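As a next step, the fold was encoded as tokens, giving this record:
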Amino acid sequence: MPSTHISLHYHIVFSTKDRVPVIAPEWRDRLHGYLGGVVRSLDGVAEIVGGVNDHIHLQLGLRATHCLADVVRDIKAVSSRWVHEEIHLREFEWQEGYGAFTVSASQRGAMRDYIARQEEHHRRRTFQEEYRELLDRCGVEYEERYLW
């Protein structure tokens, strides 16, 4: 085949350090926009960015040459620096790890809707409940003691 054709879409989830609820509504949209810009600067496609006061969800498309771990590392590092400099929250940190789940082409719209409704969703369930459900639904094995 003379050319490469791919459809690599990911749902990425990560929280603030210790899930501290520091992402305030006053600047949350700016952060989401900035995160999307970071993805674009890495030559990815930010399909949607959402979240609430203690965590972020991104649905993004990546190229075959991207290394997912490097992309997430860069997103977190650059956005953390932005929060320090623009929002002046010097103590702000992201958690060390993250969740990454593939999204099939047929489910991209449903996942975008899910991410867009994060505030509504978290009126009924915590981040911990949501994250465990994601892991279970995707068949990811985990030990509770290493999640938080």
Summary: DSSP finds five helices and four strands in the chain. The mean pLDDT is 96. Residues 133 and 139 are 10 Å apart (CA to CA).
